[in-house]
Specification:
mainly beta; four-stranded antiparallel sheet; about 80 residues; elongated
Length: about 80
């Protein structure tokens, strides 16, 4: 469910006053670590406020690693919302 607004899924519905997200994401394509293939690590930061920019809804930091092992996709994600 978390294609947008961070991995903690805090905003599954849009607040009445709207939602503005400012985000920064960095990825590192690490390659393969036998037997895990296509390893990618990421970290992202998100700041949330209402659509007018007047009310602070908080911030979130996410990170994770994904890859594949014998054709099976593997992923680990973490999220911290405050």
């Amino acid at each position: 469910l978390h294609a947008f607004q961070g991995a903690a899924d805090v905003f599954l519905t849009t607040p009445v006053a709207g939602l503005r997200e400012t985000a920064l994401r960095a990825e590192w394509r690490a390659g393969s670590f036998n037997p895990v293939l296509g390893v990618v690590a990421f970290v992202s930061a998100h700041r949330f406020e209402d659509a007018a920019g007047e009310e602070d809804y908080g911030w979130e930091v996410d990170g994770g690693v994904r890859g594949s092992f014998k054709g099976i996709g593997l992923s680990f994600k973490f999220a911290h919302y405050e």
